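User: ok so my PI wants both of these folded by tonight, can you help

Assistant: No problem, let's get them done. Here's the first:
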Amino acid sequence: MPRSIYRSPNTRERATSATTSTHPTTEPASLLWAHQLRREHTALVSHFDKLEESTLSSTERAEAAIAKLKDEVLGRLGKLEQAVGIVQKDVREFGGWKEKVEDREDERDKDREFEEGEEKARREKEKELAEVERVRRDKERDDILGSIEGLKGVVDGLGRERGREDFIEDIKMLKGVVEEIKRERELEKQRERETEEERERMELERHISPITTLEPPSAQQPNRSSSPVHPADLQHSRQIQTRQKFPSHFPSTISGTPTMSHLPTSSVTRSSPPRDCSPLLVPDSHSLELDLDPSSLSSALVNTPPNMPKADLKYMVPDMRQGQSEHLTEYLSRGEDVLASFPRREESRIVQAFWDGLGDSWFKKAMEQKLDEEGWRWEVVKGVVANMHESVDGLSKDMPLPEQERDGGDRSLLAHDGAGEKKRKTKKRRMIPVIWPVDGEEEDWFVVPGACNN
């Protein structure tokens, strides 16, 4: 601000006194005041102009900045809208995939429920079949026991009341019935084994993917059979084996029937009578020959194919099947006896027959793996059995044996006295003293009435 604006009171008083004393327009003070006011007015106007110019420039700069910011914001907004469109598209695609996944999960749940239902139905069906089979076996066992009781009653009654010829005819008929029951039972066991193997094969094919076709042991080891076998020889060997299983004449006693020879050198054997029965004297040196009708014999000769080739011994490998109560060592000893009766070149076939006859599926698989690795030789078989003997004590820790499921299996694998030996639980059956008399036999045989105490 100009200094003239801030005047002291004394100056104002002197100016007032001067104005009052002289003419106001001509006074020097008035002129000074006018000049000062003009200068101040000019300064204020220039100051206002500068402020207006600065304000206008600031406004222009602000508008330019605002316009630039607006353009930038609009650009970002456009990009944001594009991003929102992309996100919305992705969300729509994700919704479609989500629906597909949910549909697939629903289908999988339905398939799982269907499979569970099928599995449950299959188990229930198997349970029902097992129950029906158990009832059938119980009924068959009861029928067999009833037949045996009837046999005993018939034998006792016929021995006391009827004649010798009628007694022999009835015994033949009853023996045929018993043999037929035995054959039916063997066929039933064979069918059960085949059904069990088929079920295991189906389970294996259902759980393994892709399915691998396994070659039989004979195809994996070409050196098992060192000599070719003619089909006619195989057919003849099967017929010979059938004749061995079903001979044309029957022994004087049924297997397992308590009898005792009348000879002084005879000893008490497996066919000895039980403790509560009296010994029955039967001539063991004779066998009961079947009376063949000439007409049936001629028809059998007519039906026999002509010029049947004779099989050589090297093609007649016996059916080495391990018995239910036969221990592994006994089975091995029997195999060694069979091997000793064959040439050395037939070793692989004997090993194959021994392996086919094993009753324990777990041990059979282990032996097959060992034979495939080291060759189908008898020394390998003996080594596997020896290793089983050595590891039987620690078998429960290192290699637990699976439970035997076939034929009610509780069969012992090894035959030795040890802490780890599994003993087969067998059902004791009552021994029945049945005597099969022989045609042409002297009157020196007899049946002791009341031999067994019922």
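One down. Here's the second:
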Amino acid sequence: MGNLVDTLAAAGTTLALYLMLGFPFLIWSGRTSYASALLEVDGQPRGWPGRAATVWLAILPLLLIAYYFVSGIGRLNVEQPDLGVATATVQKYESEWGPWLFLWLPPCVGMIIGYFVGAIIARNRKERL
């Protein structure tokens, strides 16, 4: 029972920290895509974020997430030393970039979600105008 509680506490703490890390990027991205979508072209709001906002706030973060998972940079190599005595396993990342890209995942997810939330809110506002 203690192991389950420890595992759930660790997972909950990690989730809370990741939400806190991604939330500012969600707000920033949402405001940017909202402003871009309501930019007037020929006297009418565009209704969808522009190309630059789409590239920077949706496509590039999506490519970084895809690169992280497809390339396997975040994989751990678990080595069991054969010393004849009880020793702990050694975990090493396959690449030095693994931990850094792992830290970039929450901001990337926040930017993608914020982009779509801002675009949806701007589209609803355009329909009301």
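The CA atoms of residues 47 and 127 lie 9 Å apart. The first strand starts at residue 40 and ends at 41. Good luck tonight!
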